[in-house]
Design brief:
By secondary structure, the chain is mainly α. The protein is about 30% helix and about 5% strand.
Length: about 100
């Protein structure tokens, strides 16, 4: 991947489009620190992500694949998938995603 620069304002959602398949995967792998950049750095709020606790970083970056297949499960099960969380966190997540009534 060549140089890439972008800014995302806090609490915003972005979509990665018009990148090659490998570029999107590489960018996501870099953001979640599955791989580290060979040059340069990645910063969130001015902080280099290599200085952030890995678990905290990964818990705060969500990825929704283009061809998502939603299982036949409740919203609670889907939202909490893979997490050890409580009802308050699930409700907060649903409110943040505008799916809580």
């Amino acid at each position: 991947m060549k140089k890439i620069y972008f800014t995302v304002k806090g609490k915003k959602t972005i979509a990665l489009i018009r990148l090659t398949r490998n570029s999107k995967s590489t960018l996501l792998n870099l953001l979640k620190r599955f791989i580290d950049p060979s040059k340069g750095s990645i910063k969130i709020d001015g902080q280099n992500i290599s200085d952030v606790i890995l678990r905290s970083l990964r818990e705060n970056i969500a990825v929704i694949p283009q061809n998502l297949k939603i299982p036949n499960k409740s919203i609670r099960e889907i939202v909490s998938y893979g997490l050890h969380t409580n009802n308050i966190k699930i409700i907060e997540s649903c409110k943040a995603a505008f799916i809580y009534k």
